[in-house]
Amino acid sequence: MLIIERLNFSYPQLGDQFSYSLRVGPGEIVAITGRSGAGKSTLLDLVAGFIKPLSGTISFNGDDLVLLPVEKRPVSILFQADNLFDHLSVNANLALGLAPGSKKDQALETALKEVGLSGFGGRRVSNLSGGQQQRIALARTLLRNRPILLLDEPFANLDAKTAQDMRDLVSTLGAKHKWCTLIVSHQLEDMSGFAKRSYRLEEGKLISA
């Protein structure tokens, strides 16, 4: 379980202060909504380790994450875009950071099959649609095998049907692999039926939506 308790952060130059407390269990999807600048992405940055909190704790299955560097945290993150290298093939993108081995090709194809893109390994990323690119980014998450998934407006640039297909896919894979999934979005209505629980960020604090 991902547990965030009394996690505090501020941007002194802007006068913004944020305080977060929430829990995300295995297989759960929790949504954070709010206006631009409310602190949604700041929360993801804290969990990922891109920025350090002033105080408070982030733990996963009892292990303290706050002092761990980014590369040591059990976290994967998907953004709106720029998750992949356009000039490389799908397989080249998926293989980045993976240890070499005789079973690597099989692992790549298995991940592609799970996201519905079996046989796409040789294609150049720049020739794929936005929805296909997000599926490839999700396949890379599968290969990294990290139990915390952070989604930063990952469906914002997709059409309505493709976005819904992606939400369905994340729900299926999250339940199967027991991910603790935390998603931020501007639109609360998009989270209906997708997130188990939703919170709204107001004045730097989480309020049950």
Automatic annotation (TrEMBL):
GO MF annotations in UniProt: ATP binding; ATP hydrolysis activity
Identification of the protein by name: Thiamin ABC transporter, ATPase component / Thiamine transport ATP-binding protein thiQ
InterPro entries on file: AAA+_ATPase (IPR003593), ABC_SmlMolc_Importer (IPR050093), ABC_transporter-like_ATP-bd (IPR003439), ABC_transporter-like_CS (IPR017871), P-loop_NTPase (IPR027417)
Limits of the ABC transporter domain: 2-209
Organism classification: unclassified sequences, metagenomes, ecological metagenomes
Source organism of this protein record: hydrothermal vent metagenome
Protein keywords: ATP-binding, Cell inner membrane, Cell membrane, Membrane, Nucleotide-binding, Translocase, Transport
Listed Gene3D superfamilies: P-loop containing nucleotide triphosphate hydrolases
